[in-house]
Amino acid sequence: MNTSPTSVTLHLTNTTAQDVLRVARHDIQVDISAEVSEKLAEVRTHIDALAASETPVYGISTGFGALATRHIAPADRAKLQRSLIRSHAAGMGTPVEREVVRALMFLRAKTLASGRTGVRPVVLETMVALLNAGITPVVREYGSLGCSGDLAPLSHCALVLMGEGEATDKHGVNRPVPELLAEAGITPLELAEKEGLALVNGTDGMLGMLLMALADLDDLADIADVSAAMSVEAQFGTDQVFRPELHEPLRPHPGQALSAANMFGALQGSQVVASHREGDGRVQDAYSLRCSPQVTGAVRDTITHARMVATRELAAAIDNPVVLPSGEVSSNGNFHGAPVAYVLDFLAIAVADLGSIAERRTDRMLDPARSRDLPAFLADDPGVDSGMMIAQYTQAGLVAENKRLAVPASVDSIPSSAMQEDHVSLGWHAARKLRTAVDNLRRVLTIELVVASRALDLRKPLTPAPITGAVHEVIRSKVAGPGEDRFLSAELEAAYELLADGTVISALHHAQGK
């Protein structure tokens, strides 16, 4: 029975990471609770009062950024909001992925629903209607500095709310925005005081990408444990270094203990491991085999730290100025993306290292001097056939790129807005490179799984463990076993899809009894 929710309801609090993933990746519908609509209407009365006042208030009756000193007359304020969105929608480059835009929009809707931004209920309702209709604004790769929020990406979304800009329908087809809105029964917004700024002043893009990366890395850490176990098994390594008494009691890092337990469990019942338990002259396996739990475990602990930051950010209501419970509207600096940017960069380092150790395990399986009697490059007829030689080249290239992507973005800063915004986080850039690094890691682990599966086939008639064997069977559903050289790229891409679509992780968790 399918018990997945059919919608996500926006409340004043308690939006979860899972809610974001459901909306961004699975097009779950969004509802607005009655308490949210009532709260927005109540808070809006404070904004209307300030707008009618003779006293200038930033974001309501003034210009923006370095132009904040200019008082804007009431007759020009609707134009001010339109001008803000049009001028800030200045992104360039390739459109970012649909799921990123949907996450960004939902997270901004979550903040609008908090009652801290001062928008009218109709602004939130229009944003939610856009999500539910599957209309996706076209957001360009470049434009955000990760400070004052993800200004350009959010402005491209706000422009579509106004009936302008670029957008695609639910099928991904780029169509005129007025046509898309009319088809969905959505009336374009005329923004009132404060609303333009409220739509663009948040860390929603970088946070959305962080939440999706964390979900992906949870799965890839589990896959890395089983791919490492398959490499240990295929290379006649020992499972004894993964025993629990060698981990948590001696070095109490939670991630290490979990990865060691995963690897130890994955190798139980292996005829391959049992075949050399007696009379094996090797004292220790190489670091890339023996230290796999220490590396993947450190990645897990990095994920845990990043998730703590993401959870805190998800609970935030980021805008500038912000409406306090007293009704006071106050400027602040909460839009600065440093907390999120730092962990995005930290994860990129961990991802690069996890791919690096996986590539080293793969290379050992291909080298007859180190692979314990496996044929060179696992070729059918080494010399005539090259086997998996160039698959490792591809893997090495991916690892090299991830090392470059591990260079942090958040240590950089370029002043903007006539030096008013003189220190920025570049968190959007950290998020964009992390997305690439995570996908590269998925490809690195794909290659290790394909190579290890072939190596295990070459150990027949010895059979792998039930858990490693289950993953081996999934790989074999799309990739043939050992034989003469054949077109390898298509097989690697087919195996990659098994990781990308969740087939491998589902089979692994089923075999583990999860």
TrEMBL record:
A Pfam family this chain is assigned to: Lyase_aromatic
Keyword RNA-binding attached: no
Enzyme Commission designation: 4.3.1.3
Covalent link 5-imidazolinone (Ala-Gly), residues: 147-149
Matches recorded under CDD domains: PAL-HAL (cd00332)
Modification 2,3-didehydroalanine (Ser) occurs at: 148
Signal peptide stretch: none
SUPFAM superfamilies: L-aspartase-like
Coiled coil: none
Record's keyword annotation contains Cytoplasm: yes
Key words, A-Z: Cytoplasm, Histidine metabolism, Lyase
Metabolic or biological pathway: Amino-acid degradation; L-histidine degradation into L-glutamate; N-formimidoyl-L-glutamate from L-histidine: step 1/3
Subcellular location, record wording: Cytoplasm
Recorded catalytic activity of this chain's protein: L-histidine = trans-urocanate + NH4(+)
Processing and modification events after translation: Contains an active site 4-methylidene-imidazol-5-one (MIO), which is formed autocatalytically by cyclization and dehydration of residues Cys-Ser-Gly.
Sequence similarity: Belongs to the PAL/histidase family.
Protein name: Histidine ammonia-lyase
